[in-house]
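Margin note: ligand = aspartic acid.
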Amino acid sequence: MSVTSRSEKRTIPAHTKILGGLILGAAAGITANLTLGSGNLQGFVANVTEPVGRMWLSALIMIVIPLILATLSLGVVGLGDLRTLGRIGLLTILGFLLLTVLSTSLGLFAMNVFQPGGGLDPAVRDKLMVAYKDEAKGAMGLATGKFGIDMFVKIIPRNPIQAMANGEMLAVIFMALMLGVAMMLIPREKAEPMVRFMESLSQIVVAIIHLVMRVAPIGVFCLVFSVTARFGYELLIQLLKYVVVVVGTMALFEFGVYPLVLKFIARRSPLEFFRKIRVVIITAFSTSSSNATLPTSMRVAEEELGLRREVSAFVLPLGATMNMNGTALFEGATVLFLAQVFGVQLPLQAQLIVVVMSVLMAVGTAGVPSGSIPLLMMVLAVVGVPPEGIAIILGVDRILDMCRTVLNVSGDLVTAAVVQRFEKRQ
Ligand code: ASP
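Resulting structure:
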């Protein structure tokens, strides 16, 4: 073998390896599940693949707080004045809001058209309600105190160190914004040492991201294997119509709505955009966590999409916490599905309440696996659908979570591209 061909072999692109991890993980997991049965795989998954996958996930989450602190404060300094910050802020929130309302409405529309809840066998419904009763109760417990005025009060941390330790994203974002604004306001020579420290920290964090992503194929393999090996495929068949409608609508949003926004508003080639963000898509899909995907999307935004740090450092952390288009779509669709299952009529007015609540709940959802379930139960309760009915879909939620997280992070990158375009014009 020649030297060239050997070195060519060594340089398989990183995203191809990660995609390989995803495909192999899914193929191995499904095969193992179908041949050995999910029960027999329990020990292997719990002691081998799941811990390895979780270690990779933790390594990604480990860098989120220093990443936000360094890049966001530097981004604000880079903007140079408060008016630009205000303009970017407004544009970002507007973009988030429009996309979220659109995605929720599309979810509701699809459920109204296809009515998958009407055809669900009542025997299956009762069986699922019993099987996932405890999980539903647990999620209900988590819902208390998750959403309310306190959520807004807590954006300003009393103790920033504690906020960082608790991973309170909005509070950390607020702290980083304040740091950046203050560094911008004080005389340049006084701010210089801190700016240089933050610059050094941000480069160190990026180097860590590169290291952690080197083992991504293994992490992705383990996470996807764990889900597919444990999954109850009979359940998927019983809820097939619901799953197909939800995933189909999500696919329409990802590959129909986002490309339109990219082409006509951000003025970018959608194909190229999606090609460049495929690592982000795979990471979101396998981790089911917007927070864990944030380091990768920040890196891709700067290195691949060429987005300015001032824009990506502001839009992406905020988006990982506030902009959840996939989650909002799933919430709207699931409320309607469960209303159909329980025979609860939801007239247009009630559906408008579902849209508003789903948007608010999506903002309040933490970017972690199944972060939206407790809040979704609150929406169900408000519109008069039994919240414990969530048990019906819990068994298939992980698969839906993987898909909605892809939409959540793609939406952040799309918004960042839109903001960049308007900022350039300024
Ligand atoms: N897993 C989602 C995310 O991190 C949140 C959710 O919908 O449960 O974006």
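Residues 14-425 form a domain with the Proton glutamate symport protein fold (CATH 1.10.3860).
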